[in-house]
């Protein structure tokens, strides 16, 4: 990548005449030959001193300031070796200037970092900004480009570390650049570009780490100017300490909630400055503008708090609700939930979320229910809130409401929930329809059908409502009635749906013998999933003996069944997934499929057998499937690849990597990847129940979708 580094001559014209020639010349090698920057880079700023030439408004200001740095350093030859001490300087306009360049600099202070000299082992890069300045995006982009250049193109390559000047040295330098002066930040070319960080969040992070460093149990948060779980949990521990809880823990549990209730003091009346700091910090972390003096509760803070109440569907103007909801608001602020519509969020979804908070938290007061996010996304927490609201409306006592799809909830939905619906229960059923929208109309190609938002708030049995329910039932392969029966409720609420419903598919680790094949057929099964291989040797204590046996595919077909092949080498944790493993296992799956005479065109399901989060999918799961795809392509694409996993895993790998079919782990109903996500458009099988089919023979009960993956029904000739 090309980079422009402006020569010393550009700023040397502003140096006093006697030194101007030296300033414009190429930097001379240091008198200290100890120089190898394989440690990385130190980040600096200009500190609190007065800027020569003004406030960096123009490039001329920047050049004059660099010249003043040179003159100061040249005057202290003993410390700075007779030249400007920094290797490079970057201005707010995004221009990079040569200082010492690729020769050894002297700006990093004496000392060592893990045995490397601070000056001998690191470049120094100074950002032209004072202590009260914020970095511009061009400055950060220039830092990123320069660090990439130093790592990959410089005559003396830089190592991977990015450190603040204050690392191991008593200085406030690099000021507000500190939140970027670390590996993985936006100036690290090996990390994604994430733009500007938030100085107020950074201020809160530094304060909470300093203030509670010695508190029992306290875990410091990253100081990077970006809100994350680490930040809000550290603030939670600060709150606990101020409320007298010891040791502190990284969880806003019942003890913390009750302590906020007992204190019963809103921020405007709060005498404890540290609590005011925590509340302001939490508002900043949520993206609300409040007091820049975090210890003061001012008008900006008050406006922000009232807006939070409104955004969450609560009435700050109601004195009773204002006080009763305060502990819920504090808990909501100290989580990663959002109460404002976020990009990509749905406004109708947000309206339903706010209504859930208004009715079931503020008015009904369900003890187990927290404020649900109001961000426009149907997520795990929203699903839990919806379930609790339904439990209340079907008559479960408030003290017994827990958000689980247990026997009492199932009985209520099969009873009152399956009758004529009006009022709040009708609204909840239709909200569940909206949350599962769009559903898919049959094709080819399939086309999406969105739920009609006005149908949520009417008791009328509209044609659009009935049509959507029928389409959803057909897509989910449950009886098409257009009605709110138990099976439809279950399919809307949990990934298993009605786990007792009949299904034509199954999978297992047990060899299918002729007798077992006949048993499966008699039980109504028409397709069975089996594993192509096993990575453990028979001597391993965890060996399952799960792989297809020679001749077993023909035995399955002889019983009238079809076969779908699964490939899983462990696959139960993040470390099992890399691009190289995808390549290796794609090759292995192809060879085993050929060995068992599976014909061309068959889909092999590669398993993700744990609750992979989006961050896992991005970092490891997608690269693994990229490897699988590349391996199969390299062997002529004889076989297609499918994905086994949660709904979210299946949706993302299908859309982003190209999996042909999805085998959904629906029976793992508690997976975050199954809560708040619809069935994938390309689902072919849905595991809904695990049970013992016969003594010693466990079976997964799989709904096999009509007109989806046909499976193996014939083998290649021997």
Automatic annotation (TrEMBL):
<feature type="domain" description="Rv2525c-like glycoside hydrolase-like">
    <location>
        <begin position="519"/>
        <end position="699"/>
    </location>
</feature>
<dbReference type="InterPro" id="IPR002502">
    <property type="entry name" value="Amidase_domain"/>
</dbReference>
<dbReference type="Pfam" id="PF08924">
    <property type="entry name" value="Rv2525c_GlyHyd-like"/>
</dbReference>
<dbReference type="InterPro" id="IPR015020">
    <property type="entry name" value="Rv2525c-like_Glyco_Hydro-like"/>
</dbReference>
<dbReference type="InterPro" id="IPR036505">
    <property type="entry name" value="Amidase/PGRP_sf"/>
</dbReference>
<protein>
    <recommendedName>
        <fullName>Rv2525c-like glycoside hydrolase-like domain-containing protein</fullName>
    </recommendedName>
</protein>
<dbReference type="InterPro" id="IPR017853">
    <property type="entry name" value="GH"/>
</dbReference>
<dbReference type="GO" id="GO:0009253">
    <property type="term" value="P:peptidoglycan catabolic process"/>
</dbReference>
<dbReference type="GO" id="GO:0008745">
    <property type="term" value="F:N-acetylmuramoyl-L-alanine amidase activity"/>
</dbReference>
């Amino acid at each position: 990548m090309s980079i422009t580094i402006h020569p010393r001559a550009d700023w040397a014209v502003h140096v006093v005449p006697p030194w101007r020639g030296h300033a414009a010349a190429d930097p001379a090698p240091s008198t200290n030959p100890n120089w190898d920057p394989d440690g990385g880079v130190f980040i600096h700023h200009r500190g609190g001193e007065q800027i020569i030439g003004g406030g960096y408004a123009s490039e001329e200001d920047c050049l004059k300031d660099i010249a003043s740095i040179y003159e100061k350093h040249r005057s202290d030859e003993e410390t700075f070796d007779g030249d400007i001490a920094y290797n490079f300087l970057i201005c707010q306009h995004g221009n990079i200037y040569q200082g010492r360049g690729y020769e050894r600099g002297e700006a990093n202070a004496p000392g060592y970092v893990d045995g490397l000299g601070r000056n001998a082992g690191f470049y120094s890069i100074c950002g032209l900004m004072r202590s009260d300045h914020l970095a511009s995006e061009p400055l950060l982009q220039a830092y990123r480009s320069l660090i990439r250049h130093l790592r990959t193109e410089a005559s003396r390559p830089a190592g991977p570390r990015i450190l603040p000047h204050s690392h191991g040295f008593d200085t406030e330098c690099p000021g507000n650049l500190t939140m970027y002066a670390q590996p993985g930040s936006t100036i690290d070319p090996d990390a994604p570009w994430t733009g500007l960080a938030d100085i107020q969040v950074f201020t809160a992070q530094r304060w909470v780490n300093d203030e509670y460093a010695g508190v029992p149990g306290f875990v410091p948060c990253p100081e990077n100017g970006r809100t994350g779980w680490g930040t809000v949990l550290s603030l939670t521990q600060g709150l606990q300490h101020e409320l007298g809880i010891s040791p502190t823990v990284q969880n806003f549990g019942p003890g913390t909630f009750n302590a906020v209730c007992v204190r019963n003091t809103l921020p405007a009346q709060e005498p404890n400055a540290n609590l005011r700091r925590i509340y302001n910090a939490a508002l900043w972390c949520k993206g609300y503008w409040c007091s820049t003096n975090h210890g003061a509760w001012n008008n900006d803070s008050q406006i922000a708090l009232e807006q939070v109440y409104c955004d969450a569907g609560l009435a700050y103007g109601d004195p009773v609700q204002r006080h009763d909801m305060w502990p819920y608001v504090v808990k909501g602020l100290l989580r990663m939930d959002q109460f404002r519509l976020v990009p990509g969020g749905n406004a109708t979804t947000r309206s339903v979320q706010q209504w859930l908070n208004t009715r079931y938290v503020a008015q009904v007061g369900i003890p187990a229910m927290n404020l649900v996010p109001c961000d426009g996304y149907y997520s795990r927490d929203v699903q839990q809130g919806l379930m609790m609201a339904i439990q209340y409306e079907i008559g479960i006592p408030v003290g017994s409401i827990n958000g689980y799809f247990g026997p009492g909830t199932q009985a209520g939905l099969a009873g009152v929930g399956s009758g004529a619906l009006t009022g709040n229960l009708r609204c909840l059923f239709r909200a569940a329809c909206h949350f599962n929208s769009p559903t898919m109309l049959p094709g080819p190609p399939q086309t999406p059908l969105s739920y009609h938002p006005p149908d949520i708030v009417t008791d009328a049995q509209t044609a659009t409502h009935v049509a959507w329910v029928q389409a959803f039932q057909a897509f989910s392969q449950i009886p098409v009635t257009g009605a709110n029966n138990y099976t439809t409720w279950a399919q809307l609420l949990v990934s298993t749906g009605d786990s007792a419903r009949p299904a034509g598919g199954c999978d297992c680790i047990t060899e299918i013998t002729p007798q077992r094949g006949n048993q499966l057929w008699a039980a109504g099964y028409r397709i069975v999933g089996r594993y192509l291989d096993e990575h453990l040797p028979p001597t391993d204590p965890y060996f399952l003996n799960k792989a297809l046996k020679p001749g077993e595919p023909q035995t399955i077909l002889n019983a009238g069944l079809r076969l779908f092949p699964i490939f899983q080498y462990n696959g139960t944790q993040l470390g099992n997934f890399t691009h190289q493993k995808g390549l290796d296992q794609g090759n292995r799956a192809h060879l085993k499929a050929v060995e068992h005479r599976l014909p061309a065109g068959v889909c092999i399901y590669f398993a993700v057998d744990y609750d992979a989060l989006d961050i896992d999918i991005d970092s490891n799961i997608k690269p693994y499937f990229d490897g699988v795809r590349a391996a199969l392509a390299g062997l002529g694409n004889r076989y297609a690849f499918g994905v086994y996993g949660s709904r979210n895993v299946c949706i993302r790998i299908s859309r982003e990597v190209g999996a042909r079919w999805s085998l959904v782990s629906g029976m793992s109903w508690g997976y975050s990847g199954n809560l708040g996500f619809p069935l994938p458009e390309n689902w072919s099988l849905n595991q809904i129940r695990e049970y013992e089919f016969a003594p010693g023979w466990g079976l997964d009960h799989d709904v096999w979708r009509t007109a989806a993956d046909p499976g193996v029904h014939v083998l290649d000739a021997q």
